[in-house]
Write the structure tokens for this entry.
Amino acid sequence: MCGRFSFYQAPETVAELFQLAGIPQIKPRYNIAPTQSVSTVLQQEETQERQFQMMRWGLIPFWAKDVKMGAKLINARSETVSEKPSFRSPFKHRRCWILADGFYEWETTDSGKQPFYFQLKDGEPFAFAGLWERWQSPEGESIESCTILTTEANELMSRIHVRMPVILSPTSRDRWLDSATPPEELHPLLTPYDSQEMIGYPVSRMVNTPKTDSPDCVQRIAGGEE
């Protein structure tokens, strides 16, 4: 499960790291929640050029009657993604990067749920493995939406939750984005990220409120280990 994440990197850093043609128009986000807009990268099949695009988080299948279904499809299990009707076609033809620099998960404690923030040790932004879809309303409105793939938790995450989002390694990002990559070569990319390359720490419960979006959300609080 991945229900909240952050992406607050400078646009110039994003353009350089992910080799974008232009500098994206983005603002810092510290507590991104489902149905909100997220930063994604697609690859144009004809030119192979990477395209930055904002999308709605929560995949709306093209056959859905309305947008409400998207709120239930913020994540897709990597083990079954090629079988589920909502994800089969995007898995083959519409893969994307969903850009982030950290994500939240909650530990159940005697005093309630305690949020933890997880990121790479070097603080660099990264790409979740994502799928996207285009949905059109009866009135002609077009919405591009996406979902984050999940896998089993690594050692760092396992004491907090049994699942974690798929973070693509720098060596696997290109293959995931390339529409020419055969489907049978995709599943090996969807593995837990190396625990040794990540850190996690407790943060304020202010992140429990989706409307709260400030640098304080990602600040470490006392009372937990990495």
